[in-house]
Amino acid sequence: MEDAIEQIVSYLKHAAQGLEEKKQILYLLGPVGGGKSSLAERLKSLMQLVPIYVLSANGERSPVNDHPFCLFNPQEDAQILEKEYGIPRRYLGTIMSPWAAKRLHEFGGDITKFRVVKVWPSILQQIAIAKTEPGDENNQDISALVGKVDIRKLEHYAQNDPDAYGYSGALCRANQGIMEFVEMFKAPIKVLHPLLTATQEGNYNGTEGISACRSTGLFSLTRTNPNGSLSVITKTTKPSLIVFTS
């Protein structure tokens, strides 16, 4: 168990430094009773001890936990922010969500009309911590990860309006936090597609005609038993870190 913990700490440290680990999914692989669930639950519990900072507009918090840095242009603002505030350039390579983009347009490009709120991650409220599990192959789709249009809002908004979208997917809720996908490779392959762009490119598309959402500081975690899983992992997802528990 100590070796597994050391690997996880190293993974998180390197990911925070912007190295290749930040594009990797952490796999906890081991037998039943090997401590996978305990490690996963401990990581989520520790996540609740550190606040995150989220954009707010008109008293409404960003449904995808938009980080304030998404408002800055890396080409125009990076040098100023690094010189005056010591903010490394790598933190500015973010895009804003459709929700934030709509508010910025309504504000006429005035970013001072946004507010920043300190939010404590919560397992119970699914704030920056989300968990998803494989469902039936016939009825599970990518909306479990990326959300979908909320039909209750179509009375007031067009179908492609960001405010008509329900940001209920695990990737939406877990932005700036942890997303745990239990037994990921038992899910239909089509459900896993958003994870590729979320980890490699740092963004993912919704199910409707809205712009991409950013996955900033997202820690993707999955756990599974070794029965055939290792061969599936190595064949289908090269960008991964496998931690064996015993």
From TrEMBL:
SMART domains: AAA_PrkA (SM00763). Residues 1-240 form the PrkA AAA domain. This is Serine kinase family protein. Keywords: Kinase, Transferase. It comes from Escherichia coli. The gene is yeaG_2. InterPro entries: P-loop_NTPase (IPR027417), Prk_AAA (IPR013153). GO terms for molecular function: protein kinase activity. It comes from the Bacteria.
